[in-house]
Amino acid sequence: MTSAAAEGQVCPPRLYSHSRLQLFRFSAVSWNSHRIHYDAEFAASEGFPDVVVQSTLHGETLSRYALEWAGPGARLESVSWRNRATAVAGEKLTWTATVRTTEPCDEGVRVTLDVSVLKDDGAPCVTGQVGLTQL
């Protein structure tokens, strides 16, 4: 980010997808042993087209891209989200965000973002808010 955040500002979108390997590794480090997140055959038996993205990985992605947008030295204050639809390995997703509020503080500017993860057809997969301090 090259300038101060302004209310209503739309952040540049981030396009991405999660690989099966990434989902397997995230399950391991987060101690999530549910097979739908790493076993494609089991996920298919449960009605999913591939292994399922973990809810907590959505939260991590919302936070990581918000911090990247905010620039060096930005500090995460809060993150909250709601899963709206299931995402699976290899699915094209887009992180989007709009600045909801800005407030000067001793450390810089406290910013609240309305964040979303959108599926390829534009339908929301995840919606939420990220709070951060931007230096």
UniProtKB/TrEMBL annotation:
Entry-linked Gene3D superfamilies: Hotdog Thioesterase
InterPro entries documented for this protein: HotDog_dom_sf, Mitochondrial_HTD2
GO MF annotations, alphabetized: (3R)-hydroxyacyl-[acyl-carrier-protein] dehydratase activity
SUPFAM superfamilies per the UniProt record, alphabetical: Thioesterase/thiol ester dehydrase-isomerase
The organism's place on the tree of life at top rank: Bacteria
Name of protein: Acyl dehydratase
